[in-house]
Amino acid sequence: MFKIFTVMIFVSSLWAYQPGDVVSPEVGQKLGLQSDKTYVIDFFASWCISCKHELPLIEKLSRTLRMKNIEVVGVDVDENLNQAKAFQQELGLTFSVVNDPKGEVIKHFDPVGMPAVYIVKNAKVTHMILGAKDHIDRLILAALKEEK
Amino acid sequence: MHYFMIAAILFLGGCSHIGNVKPWEKGTLAKESMQNNRGNRLLTKFEKHVYFSKEASKGGGGVAGGGCGCN
């Protein structure tokens, strides 16, 4: 039984995007990604307390990154679309947000925790930062610096 | 008895399609009404105090990060 469980976990992790994986054109299209650009993709939800703490930092960071031609794309996974839009409005997010109420985008990334930040460069996943982190903006900047 | 066993197995087999709840599917679990004592902090604090007094241990009674799967 334990072996089956282990195999199931291993197989499920094969489907999730890991650093080095190429984002499929279908997912790229849903997120509005261009193949020659760097993106910071942030998965969040209104019920996720840690996401609420991190989003103002990411919002601030997105304005700085825009000048460096790096785009932040948010993915709101709230099942209730009205709730999602109200949440985004409340935080005053200026970066582009894709609503994913049915989990059609996030299922490809399959993060083990929320919030989840992925850095995608030239359609390839280069970094992932999972779970609640202090100073997420600094972590993202450090990850972006590693790519240079 | 055999029919009962077969029926029970078939009935329980219906549960097999229920998968794990993914981190992004925990919106309902994060609701206050899903917390112990329906979010009544005073009652929770009291019960924790009683538990600590009786068992000389504490913790392990909550979902970290509001049930969102955060660290």
Describe, in plain words, how this protein is organized in 3D.
The complex is a heterodimer of chains A (148) and B (71). With 148 residues, chain A is an alpha/beta fold. Helices cover 45% and strands 21% of the residues of chain A. A five-stranded mixed beta sheet of chain A has the order 3-2-1-4-5. Chain A starts with a helix and ends with a helix. In chain B, 14% of the residues are buried. The model of chain B has no long low-confidence stretch (mean pLDDT 76). Chain B has helices at residues 2-13, 41-55. Chain B is an all-alpha fold. The A-B interface holds A 43, 45, 47-51, 77-79, 103, 106-107, 110-116, 130-133 and B 22-27, 30-31, 65-71.
CATH fold naming of chain A: Glutaredoxin
Number of strands of chain B: 0
Which residues of chain B sit in consecutive blocks of at least 5 with pLDDT less than 50?
none
Question: Helix amount of chain B, in percent?
Answer: 25-40%
From the 3D coordinates, which CATH architecture of chain A would you assign?
3-Layer(aba) Sandwich
Overall radius of gyration of chain B: 19 Å
Q: Strand pairing plus helix content of chain A: what structural class?
A: alpha/beta
Q: Strand arrangement, largest sheet of chain A?
A: 3-2-1-4-5
Instruction: Tell me the radius of gyration of chain A.
Output: 15 Å
**Quaternary arrangement of the chains shown?**
heterodimer
User: What is the first-to-last residue Cα distance of chain A?
Assistant: 46 Å
CATH superfamily of chain A, by name, is Glutaredoxin
CATH class of chain A: Alpha Beta
Proportion in helices of chain A: 40-55%
- How many helices of chain B in DSSP terms? 2
Order of helices and strands of chain B: HH
How much beta of chain B, percentage-wise?
A: under 5%
Query: How is the biggest beta sheet of chain A arranged?
Result: 5 strands, mixed
Succession of helices and strands of chain A: HHEHEHEHEEH
Shape of chain A: globular
